[in-house]
Amino acid sequence: MPGCPHPHHAGKRIIITIRSKGVCNLINKIRIVIVDDHHVVRTAIATLVSQEKDIEVVGEISDPRRILETINLLKPDILLLDAHMPGHRVIDTVHTLCLKHPEMPILILSAYNRREYVLGLLKAGVTGYVLKNDSPDMLLDAIRSVAHGQEWLSPQLAKIVMGTVRNNHAPKATPLTKREQEVLRLMACGHKNGEIAEELAVTTQTVKNHVTSIYSKLGAESRVEAVLYAVNHELIAVPENDQNPVI
User: Fold this and answer.
1) Is the same domain home to 151 and 174?
2) Exposed, middle or buried: residue 229 (CB in 10 Å: 0-12, 13-18, 19+)?
3) Cα(73)–Cα(71) distance, integer angstroms
4) pLDDT band at 247 (very low <50, low <70, confident <90, very high)
5) Are 220 and 212 in contact (CB under 8 A)?
6) Does 32 have pLDDT greater than 50?
7) 15 found inside a domain
8) b (16+ CB within 10 A) / e for 81-114
9) Residue of higher predicted confidence among 42 and 172
10) What distance in Å separates the CA atoms of residue 182 and residue 34, rounded to the nearest whole number?
11) Structural domain of residue 223, as residue ranges?
12) What is the mean pLDDT of residues 117-129?
């Protein structure tokens, strides 16, 4: 293409788009690998994703024993993993992947919404959990969210997780400071640490310190748990018009 160099980017497919002023704009596609033993499910997801400009399926796996091999070969940005396949303990796979590929988000796709099952996978290290009866747009939102470092939980699971968080905490948590409440509110709106730091005019490390303190005071182990607890106990109010909520 005249005037546009061909960039090299390890493990990423680069799209070059030409703006009206003739400037080259590089857009990284979100590269996903789908793991599901049902061909029709993999095909449906691949068809859905093929209509999106910023996401692409780079691999499909029907046999969970091939996951590590495929991940090592393709180095995807996200693994979309079916939580229930014959002869496969998904929680063991999650533990292994979190150990060997901690930088790769794992997005669970499942028909199972049992509380213990969902919480077990969240604690094991998955970044998001989508139910198979969620809408296609919701799946795409989940993919984009985890690709940008956010956790994602199907709205159908909110009450399940919320009830568990409520039961697992003392009636009265250690009070949050005003600044911690501000940080938690921005976390609930889906903002990452860097964005929160910019919003509050502080350093990213300061935000990380606040997040650590929030986790400790609420007894939470993740952003999702902290936000669910805070909303359930009316510690914060999440703006209804926010476009990228954690829950």
Assistant:
1) no
2) buried
3) 5
4) very low
5) no
6) yes
7) no
8) bbbebeebebbebbeebeeebeebbbbbbbeeee
9) 42
10) 37
11) 169-232
12) 86
